[in-house]
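PROTEIN DESIGN WORKSHEET
SECTION A - STRUCTURE
LENGTH: 166
TOKENS:
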């Protein structure tokens, strides 16, 4: 008999990304809605959509709509990631890493746009962005190196993937 514990299953540190995925699915649309409602209350939306809008405001409108679309895409990524994660699909680690990289990229872009005041979205401090980036990098490294991740996400692997060792 083998009494050794194998590192597998959604346990240990792997619970934290699971919680992140669950919270992100309703959290991202709520964030988008909150920003839109706040902008409407402040009259920003009326200024953006008025015919006497300045050239600067048109850029702000374009960038803000682009940001809302990016957040929507990220929300759909999280839906797909949740499906993969909880079905323990072998594609989960790669998908999680892609979502985190997308998150890093849009965080940097959102921050740059907010510095130039070209966005409805804003970061109140640089530290918030840095914490977000560090969080993403830590989980990317974890998903690349973790034995638990390698042992947990093995379902639905095609036969040819077992032959080439992927």
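SECTION B - SEQUENCE
RESIDUE ASSIGNMENT:
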């Amino acid at each position: 008999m083998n009494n050794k514990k194998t590192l597998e299953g959604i346990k240990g540190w792997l619970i934290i990304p699971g919680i992140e995925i669950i919270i992100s699915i309703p959290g991202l649309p709520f964030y988008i809605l909150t920003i839109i409602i706040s902008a409407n209350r402040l009259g920003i939306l009326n200024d953006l959509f008025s015919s006497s809008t300045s050239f600067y405001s048109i850029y702000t409108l374009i960038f803000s709509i682009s940001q809302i679309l990016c957040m929507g895409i990220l929300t759909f990524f999280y839906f797909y990631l949740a499906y993969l994660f909880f079905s323990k699909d072998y594609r989960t680690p790669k998908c999680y890493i892609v979502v985190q990289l997308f998150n890093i990229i849009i965080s940097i872009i959102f921050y740059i746009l907010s510095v130039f005041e070209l966005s409805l979205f804003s970061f109140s401090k640089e530290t918030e962005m840095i914490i977000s980036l560090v969080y993403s990098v830590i989980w990317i490294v974890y998903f690349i190196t973790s034995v638990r991740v390698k042992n947990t996400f093995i379902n639905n692997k095609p036969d040819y993937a077992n032959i080439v060792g992927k």
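SECTION C - NOTES
Residues 57 and 163 are 56 Å apart (CA to CA).
The chain has a mean pLDDT of 82.
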